[in-house]
Every structure is written in structure tokens, then in C-alpha cells.
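Table S2 (continued). Query chain:
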Amino acid sequence: MTISQPAPILIDALTADGGIIQIRSVIPGDEAELRALFGRASADALRRRFFGVPGPAALDQEIARLVRPAGAGVPDHDVIVALAGDTVIGVASYERRPPDSGSAEFAVYVDEAHHNRGVGTLLLEHLAARARRAGVSELVGEVLSSNGDMLRVVRDLDRRSSLHSDAGVVDVRLRTEPDESALALADARDRCAASASLRPLLAPRVVAVVGASRRPGGVGHATLRSLVEYGFTGRVYAVNPQATQIAGVPAFPTISAIPERVDLVVVAVPAPSVPNVMADAAAAGVRAAVILSAGFREADERGAASQAELVRLARRHGIRIVGPNCLGVLNTDPEVRLAALFAPALPPAGGLALATQSGAIGIAVLDHVARAGLGISACVSLGNKADVSGNDLLSYWYDDPATTAVALYLESFGNPRRFARIARSLTRRKPIIAVVSGRSSAGQRAGASHTAAAASPAVAVDTLCAQAGIIRVDHLGELIDTARLVTDQPLPRGHRLAILGNAGGVNVLAADAAEASDLTVPAASEDLSRLGVSNPLDLGAGATPDAFAASLDRIAASGEFDAVLTVVAATRTNNVASILDALTPVADRYPDLPMALVVLGATTAGAVGARRVPVFDLPERAVAAVAKAARYAAWRRAPIGHDPLLSDVDTSAARAIVHRALAEGGGWQPHARIADLLSRYGIPVVRTVTATDRDAAVAAAEQVGFPVVLKAADPALVHKSDVGGVRLNLADPDEVRAAYAAIGAALGVAEPAVLVQPMARGSVELVAGIAHDPLFGSLVMTGLGGVHTELLADRAFTLVPMTDRDAARMWRSLRAAPLLTGYRGSPPVAVDAVEDLLLRLGRLAEDLPEVAELDLNPILVSASGAVVVDAKLRLSEVGPEPDATLRQLRRPA
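Corresponding output:
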């Protein structure tokens, strides 16, 4: 009986020119395709790969090597292929020599017709990742010195790669674990590929609308008219078998019948008809599709299956999809003017790019930004996010000169780890403002440790945004207010806010709001005071336009402030329009100073001046926007952290401990194993002896030295003190015997296992821990520990990987931070030891995702260092999880 093998997992990846290829493991059935691949090769191509032109027997031997099964246990080799449709266009392999070695010999070959598309780089990236997971740390190979293409691939992959030339042959050594520079290069390649893949979507030359009826009223007709009326600079066609012209646009029965190649197809037909439309689009060579139609994943399981099949079809033919169930796309670039959407109102061109999963949210934001005078560079309604995601759009907008800020409305994360990497790169040059919905329903985790209980999905989202420099806001009003400030205004250079206006009470409200938002309202200097300037400055209800202009000029010229808020209250005795006219040229003279206006009691334009100073209706809204801009600017000014260099880390031994524990069933671990694991990362743990009866407890106490502590050893207990499982400061054997009996009585166990430790002391008790999230990755937590852990809930979180700056940021962000630096005359503790412990904990979390929960509580910190007194650890097997660094598109669900 023949046992069928499961089909290999297909990985979709973007090539440098924006095309889509599939990468998968080789299968025996690939033999004919591999033979055809080498059969298409020129003699020169074969010579570069094999150092000579192989005959038929040699090629047969190579193909047999490629398709042979991997060895049992540790694989002795691995082979992957790249496909364009059903055609194999590239192959990459490694062979361990010897089979259990940490080094492997690699080889890559790409069809000449697909050179310069980045196929070889993609294959080598994925091969290195697979090798790393299999325990291979280094790929080695020989490349002819004349094979410049392959040498460039190696150098582009990792600048650390070792190249040694001898007699026309270059010995190559490539590490499989990428460092920061290698990841940065991969990120840059990913951005270029994503941007190229989205050009047919956002800057097409030919657009076809499928499903536009001859009569107004339908989505297709409305979208077609939107394209025409907005002035699309390319050519537009309608697809309708019942018409030859719709709304003045030529109509054809199918996409294939259109007399030129279509870049973008907009689909507005019932869900059952969409697959046929997409098949027609694939046959016509279309590169992008916006599917407005509903009735897919959001409807039911059948719709979800249909959506997945659409994505598979599109990926096989190199088509990027927005939607289904979306509003459409907008690009206001005057060279494009694409309005392939059915929104009722469109804003002017400007610098804000918008991505939203909700069409209704998109309509609301477009309407409000238009009324606020804020311009849009692009808007993409993602809908069901079947293919194109926020990650793709962030990559596209990274180098888009028309986009100065990005606004996101997100309901879910496909690959939050990848999103964080892409967002962090973008926020170093452009602000991202994000509303993440669904946080109110994100409940606490189920977990027996303090860390896991605190690390809710909402905490993970907040932590991701904070680390990536994303300006996270709670609602659409905040998003629009913040966007108005950061899109057109320079960023504040600090937190000093100047306030002037003709309404003293409102000035005070603005100052109160500023100080509540971590802005400062510093007093004016003596020089400014001599000019009649204070802060806040009350000009009086009767202030003239000239008085406003002169005061703003003095404040702006002083250099004493990082942002200025001007309040204009309308009265029967002033003219708001005249005041704004007087303020406008002053504001334009200081383009590097952020400004905002508040106008009360009058209706005005949303922005004034050439620099488009935003006008708000309430001081609190303006101040909140300035505060968010200032916090973002401070994040951007801060140095970029780096991967910490940690000594005394034995990752291999730590992995062996975890694998052994998982083989025994995982779950909550005994203290001895926890201490052993922590020691592999140089994390200090107080000396501990386990005792299982009274006499052993006394012997252990004498061994570690009095006074001692007795604790219940049950690894599943959370609050040992609450159940009588801890006895402190035991001075002699009699007290140890009594404490042992008391713990047994409290737990209802005659002879409980206990931990015996010397009585340790410290100035401050902290808690630190790890909680693993299969989507976001591992979170590292620290906070005030001991009995205060839950009472004060003073915690800080970081997602791995941690940088050298994350540890300092964590403890400094605690409300209890002054306790560490010498509060009210108490001696400061060794904060460098705290940071070192947190970084080691972060490395442990990064190396060992099987650590589901880990609590170190308490950690005693003193002037001499930090030591862990108690620890809880739960281990669990890890399934497939998102990869933050490997370049691949999301698989259809």
C-alpha cells in the first residue's frame, strides 16, 4: 500500500520587482522540473554552478541528491525550490558534512530568465532560516570569482560573511543567525519588494471596473464615476457584457477583451462571481485587484474558504489584492489622481496616509479631515485584509515623498512581530498614529504567575506601540487631532509650551491640561518679562490683532519654548478673522516652531497660513495633540538601542534543560531545574536546598547557615505567604522544626517538600518575569515586588528582542523608580545590576519561547547587586508562530 505524503507548505514571497513566487520543500515529483531547470541553462550558467559543464550522468546524480529524503532524526540535508506558477525557477540546498555537524555546505541555482529579481537572495534567506532551526550555525560553499551575481547575493545577505579567494575560487562562510546589520538589509529588501508590488495598485496606468451597471445606484457604477470625476490621469475601462459604454467610459465583456494590459481591476460583483472575474484577471496579466464585494470571510466559513482560494489564485499569478469587503483605494498624487472607492466625499491632497480595516471608519476619517483642512496623500481600505496588509502599506509609504505621516485603524494583527519591525523603521522618519480596536474585550490571561496574569493582549498591543514609536490613541477624534499637528507641523524639540491668548481662564485650563500631559509651562525669562511677556500670557479680552501678532513674535523669537498655543476668544468687540490674519505671517516666519490655535465662539478654517497651523475648538484637544507630538519627538531623538553583549550565557545548555523538561511533560518546574536554567544566563539565585522531611530541613538549614527561610516547594503555588507556606527568620533548629510542621499543617500535607534558604536582605523588592504570547512573542515584565506586586500594580513591559536601552527604560518608567535611586535619603541600589538582570531575562525569553510563564518574585536589590529569592516556571511546547524577520507573505487562512 502506498502512503501519500502531505503536500509541502507553500510560502509566498515578494521578489525585488514586486512579483510573487512560492517557496517550498523539494518533493520527489520535482525531478522532471529540476531536469527542465538545468536543461534551460546555458553552458556559462552551468559552469558557474558546477565549475564545469556536467554531462547527463552528472546532472542525474545532482537531481537524485536534491530529491532524496532527509535523514532520520537530525536532517543531514535540506532542499527548497522556488516556483513561478508550476515551474521550478530556482533551487537551494545544504548538506551537513559530517551529518551531525553545525556546519553545512550550501548551493543555489536560479533560472537565468529570473536573474536580478532577488530570487537567489530569497532562497538563501529561507535556507539559512531552516538550517538555523535544524542546529546549523554556518553555511559554507565555493563560488567562482567570476560569479559576481552569487557573490553579491552572499554579501547582500550578511556583511559579516567571510570571503577568501584562491586560484579563481572564493570560499564563502555565511552565519545563519542574522545580526542587526543583516536584519536591516533584509528589511530594506522587503520594503523595496513591497513597494514595487503595490505600484500597480496605487499608481496604475490602466484601471478596469468590473460590475459597473449602466444605471446609477450600485457600488460599481459609483466607483467608476468616482474614478472619472476625480480625474484619473490614466485610462479607465468598464467591464460589462451588456454595454459598450458606461458613464462615458468604454465597456468590454471581459477583462481579457480590453485592448491593452490592465494594471488594476476593481471588482464589484456578487461574491459567487468574483472567482471567475479573478481568473479572467489572471489570464489578462493584471497585477492588482481591489475587491469591493462582500460575502467572504466576514460572512461564514464558506465565504472564508472562497476568500482563501482567491488569494491562492492571485499569488500564483502575481496579483496583489486589497479587500474583499472594502471601500477601495485613493491616491491624491496629481500625477495619478486615483479614486477607486465609493466614499461620498474626498479630502484635498496632503501629507497624511490612511489605512483602515473598516470602510465606515475610512468614510468618517475622510469626512472629518476634509472639514479640518487636513490633506490626504493616500487612503487604503483593507477590508478583510486577505492579502495586502498594513505591513505592506507601511513599506510603501516609507519612501513615498507625498506622505509625511501615517494614520492606522487596526482591528487585528496578522504578524505583529513583523509589523513592529516595519513600524519601528518608519517611525524613525515619519510619525504613525494608530487606533487599535477591541482592546476593551481583551481579557486578562489565564495564568498562575503574576507576569502572565498582567500580560493581557491589550498590554501586548500597548507595549508594541511604545517600543515601535507609534502614537497610540484611543479614539478617532484623538487620531484626527494628532494627525493635524504632526502631518503639517514640525516636531517639538522638547516639552516647553508657551500659552498666550485673550481669555485668562482658558489659558489656565490649557496650562492645567499641559502639565497633566507631561508638558511644562515654564515662566518667561527676565528678558521676555521686561518685554511684557509672561507664560501663560493673558492679553485681555480687548486685545487687538497687532497685540496678538507682537506677542507671538516675541515668544517665537525668544527660543525659550518648544511649542506655542494661541487662544483666540471671540467677543462683540473683536474680529477673529483680523486676529488670525495678523497671526498668520508671524507663524509663517517661524516654520521650525510647532504652533496650534484655539478659536472659541467663532467658526473658522481648519488651518491657517502657508504652514497650515491647525485650529482647534477646545484647548484640551490642542494640548493633547501637542503632548503626543512631543512624546513622539522625544522617542525619535533617543538613541537607537542595540543588542546587548552578555557574558556567561550558555544557550546550548539552557536549550538542553528545556528539551529534557518538555520530554518529561513540561508544565510547572521544580526549583532546582529553574535555578539551573537561570544560572545558564548568569541570573543570580539565592542558595537553595530542597528538603522533604523535618530532619532534612534542619540539616539544610545548618548547611546554608542561620537565620533561614522555609518555603513550600510546590511549584504551582502562587501566593505561598497567603496560604501559610512561608516562614521567615528562623534562628535555630527548633524554630525550623516548628516552621516545617506549620507549613505541613497549612498545606494539609504531613511531610511537605520545602525550600530552605539563608535569610537574604535587600533595600528594595522587585518582581521580573516572562509571559509568552504565540502572536506577539515573549513579554518581559518588571515592577515593585513582594507583597506590593498586585496591590500597587506598578509594572513595565517590553517585547523581545530587548535592546540595551530597554532595561533602563523599564525601571525608570516605574512609579517606584525613586526607591531605586535613593528616596528620602535611603541609599541608592545597584541599578546596573537590575538592568543586567532584565537584559539576561530578555535573552532567555528570546532564546526559549517554550518558557510560557516565569516569575522571579521577589528579587532583592541592594547597593551590592540583585539576587532572585523565589521563582516559578512553566514550560510548554511551541507551535508555528509568526517570524519577525523572514520575508514572506501571510498564508491564506
